[in-house]
Amino acid sequence: MSGPLRLTVDKASPVPLYHQVAQGLEDAIRSGELPPGTKLDNEIDLANRLNLSRPTMRKAMDQLVQAGLLVRKRGVGTQVVGSQVRRSLELTSLHDDLQRTGGKPATEVRDLARLPAGDEIAALLGVQPGEEVYHVVRLRTTDGEPLALMENWVPCSICELSREQLAQDGLYSIMRAQGVGFQLAHQRVGAVGADAFQAEQLGVEPGAALVAMSRTAMDDLGRPVETGRHVYRADKYSFEFTLVQR
Amino acid sequence: MSGPLRLTVDKASPVPLYHQVAQGLEDAIRSGELPPGTKLDNEIDLANRLNLSRPTMRKAMDQLVQAGLLVRKRGVGTQVVGSQVRRSLELTSLHDDLQRTGGKPATEVRDLARLPAGDEIAALLGVQPGEEVYHVVRLRTTDGEPLALMENWVPCSICELSREQLAQDGLYSIMRAQGVGFQLAHQRVGAVGADAFQAEQLGVEPGAALVAMSRTAMDDLGRPVETGRHVYRADKYSFEFTLVQR
DNA sequence: AAGTGGTCTAGACCACGCG
DNA sequence: GCGTGGTCTAGACCACTTC
Fold this sequence. Notes:
The structure is a homodimer of 246-residue chains.
Chain A: H1 17-31, H2 43-49, H3 54-66, E1 70-73, E2 77-80, E3 105-116, H4 119-125, E4 132-142, E5 145-155, H5 163-169, H6 171-177, E6 182-193, H7 196-202, E7 209-219, E8 224-233, E9 239-244
Helix pairs in contact in A: 1-3, 2-3
The structure holds a DNA duplex (19 and 19 nucleotides).
């Protein structure tokens, strides 16, 4: 591909240039304008054509390599990954994981309580055992079908939670609106057989396989602000991601 | 932390400077020399102290931010993430995922055959239906305990496989030794109830929850070179990873 | 106002793959 | 040998946070 590749950047925009370029390239790839296997022009030409410096151009391409859309090879060039399986699984969203499934999501609050943290939860949240934490249990449904049972703990010192908000807004939205700046999260994904309560809530047989996820999220100072354990119906949910060789 | 932080770089080494710095910082963090919550000096001072340019210093720190070890905040500074849960789960290894569990891993080859690709496998591998592919079934054990049942497909045109090699070396090692350069992989992780064969092989009850993983790996030209479906005993295996807000 | 990270530039040299 | 990506430099200006 040495063709035109209509792509423009707005140097006056507050959006970083490398981000504009990355977005434009990603759109071109996902739209099929740059089909799988297409060879891109070299970095310097591309940079010149957009009136950018090479480091800026490279930073844009770095993002797409990281996302698994481009493949670079020294001495050869850069190509669009040759596969249909590309999909959009960046793993970067710290928002609720369920947005992308389509359908009509709804959340029912099964429990909301303030209670003293047990040893395990206290350790995960980096607070003293006995310090008050919120305990939240929610059932997530799409189109009326149960999808996930979510149990979360949040230190009461960090924000305020109410049933009304939780039914509407998602835990992360509520916390973010109160000034909690999420930065990173550690996750563990496995499988577990449904216990009686989980089976009843999710509408499956006891012992049925469920996807189990534990997560601890941290704010911009690197301190834990939320931890949770979710179980998902295995027939309706799985985690997807892209690994990149570094 | 404005202390010395003994950290040196070797400008003559073939190892990139930013990688040396990232490695040194990571070691200092994991060893406890830089405890959770420690505030680092600013980027310019650090760069000067190591006789590096700021972009190089930043690139090193970028890696650790990406790995979830550091947290940056504009106008404030950079800190070591405040949590014990840090762990070493970069998700970067395209090697077999099982190395890190310790124990004595062993692999038994349950099947190795050349057969024409079905529609689904052909689509995943980007070959014509009916083209010959290897079908590999292996059982992975640690300390004699079954851990995973692995089923893989590889186009015969890409490399040669034998039972002897497979019992010894791991699929990826064999393929890499024959010039296949892995670059990225798409993975999907979920849960599934064990069928009769899986239950027998893994030593669990039929219907027991298993961790299910599907993966398609691609070479440096972005073409699929391997696809597989693995099931793991849920009590012995889970996937861990770190999400970073971008 | 001062200090921090976020972005960007315009060069440079090197290592690698290929013809 | 040539073209490619990989690395590195020495600056610059801006946006944001804190005091």
